[in-house]
Design a protein that fits this description.
With about 180 residues, the protein is of the alpha+beta class. The chain is built from three helices and twelve strands.
Length: about 180
């Protein structure tokens, strides 16, 4: 049985993270405090750049991103460039945003690196970042056709710009709690 948005909307609000990936239900626990601190730190840096240059909007979880009727996800961070702002609806974001970011947790590593990696590329999300707290790195991917290629790996204190933000001055060490 393939699940869709109506099935998703009927799921309980019980603190778990529910997503539907290609019609299959995925359930993970709510993120822990370290995950949320990393997300807050990343949001502050990216949002400041986006606001300063009028580049669009940065949103964070929980937020539904409806890629299709059978693929509804809740990425940790969502960026929509100005040309994709019309994808914001009352239900969340409908269609591919410019950038999706996942901060890995012990229970989400394989989902973030395999299922979502392929799903986001297939549905036309131009940029995907995977934040790995264990390795203390951020892998920034960009699409090449229907697949992602590693555009940049950021680590350490050296500030860098990750695509799509060449002006971003992110020292990855500032993310970790």
């Amino acid at each position: 049985m393939t699940l869709g948005y109506e099935d998703y909307a009927a799921l309980p609000d019980d603190g778990r993270r529910y997503e539907i990936l290609d019609g299959e239900l995925s359930v993970t626990p709510a993120p822990g405090s370290a995950h949320q601190i990393i997300l807050a730190n990343l949001f502050r840096v990216v949002d400041a750049l986006v606001r300063a240059h009028g580049l669009g909007i940065v949103l964070f979880a929980p937020l539904d991103v409806i890629l299709t009727g059978s693929s509804i996800v809740q990425p940790d961070l969502v960026y929509l460039a100005n040309d994709r702002m019309n994808r914001i609806s009352r239900r969340g974001v409908e269609g591919a945003p410019t950038l999706l970011v996942e901060v890995m947790s012990p229970g989400t590593t394989s989902i973030d690196r395999t299922r979502k990696y392929g799903l986001y590329a297939r549905h036309g999300v131009p940029f995907y970042w995977i934040v790995d707290p264990e390795a203390r790195v951020v892998d920034a991917y960009r699409t090449d056709g229907n697949a992602y290629v590693l555009a940049q790996r950021a680590q350490g204190h050296e500030p860098c710009g990750l695509p799509p933000f060449s002006d971003l001055r992110l020292g990855v060490e500032q993310l970790w709690p």
